[in-house]
Amino acid sequence: MSSVITLTDIRRVFVMGDQQFEALKGVSFSVDPGEFVAIMGASGSGKSTCMNLLGCLDRPTSGLYLLDGLDVGGMDTNQLAEIRNRKLGFVFQGFNLLARTPTVENVELPLIYAGLKTAERRQKALSALEKVGLADKEMNHPSQLSGGQQQRVAIARALVNSPAVILADEPTGNLDSATSEEIMNLFTSLNRQGITIIMVTHEADVAAYAGRRITFRDGQIIGDTK
To answer: How many folded domains does the chain comprise?
Structure first.
C-alpha cells in the first residue's frame, strides 16, 4: 500500500530583508491511507508551515512532497489549485462558511470548482450532510446553526469531493469542550470509515483522538508516536 503523503527532507526558508528564517529543517514523514494523524507543537514550532505545505498553499524551498503519488513541488499556481480541490478537504478553526448561503450550497462549493452539474452537486452535498448528521439543516444559513453544527457543515464540505486526505487546522479551537468532544467523535467515526485525516492541534486531549502524533519543535520532528 503506497503512502498518500510522503515528505522527504522538506525545508522551508523565509527571507525577510537580509534575514533568513528556516521554518522547517529537513522534515521527513509519510502518511498511509486511513491514518488519523495529529501534528502538535508550540507556536513557532513549524507545524503551521508544514500544514500549509501539505495543503498546497505554499511550496517547500527544497525537498520532495508527494501527494497521492503526485510530485506537487514543481506545479504552477493553477495546478496546485486543481490538486487542492481534487485531493484535499479542508476544515478550519473559523469554519469559513459563506454567511448568506444555505448550508447545502456551502457544501457544494468544491463541486462547483470541479465543474459538476447542478443535480449531481446537490445529491453529493446532501449525502455529505447526512454523513455529519445534518440532513435536516440543508436550507439553514450558518447564523441559524450552533458552532458545532457550523463545523459539521465545514466537515461535510471537506468530505464532498471524496478527497485523498482531510486537513483539519485546530478544528475545535472555537468550540467549547462538550462540542469539541462531539466534533472529535465525528472525526473518529469518519476515520473508521477509511478517511485519512491530518489535524493540527496544540491541545493534548484533542490529539489523543488521533492514532498517531507527530510533534514539532524548532522546525524539526522531535516525536512520532502511534
So the answer is: 1
Going by C-alpha positions, the residue among 198, 199, 146, 137 that lies closest to residue 174 is: 146
Q: Which amino acid is at 135?
A: A
Q: What number of residues does the chain have? A: 226
Which residues have CB under 8 Å from 93's CB, separation 6+? 169, 170, 171, 173, 174
CATH code for position 49: 3.40.50.300
The answer to whether 206 and 13 are in contact (CB under 8 A) is no
Q: In one letter, which amino acid is 5?
A: I
Q: What does the pLDDT look like over 153-201, one tens digit per residue?
A: 999 999 999 999 999 999 998 889 999 999 999 999 999 999 999 999 9
Q: Residue 173 is part of which domain span? A: 5-225
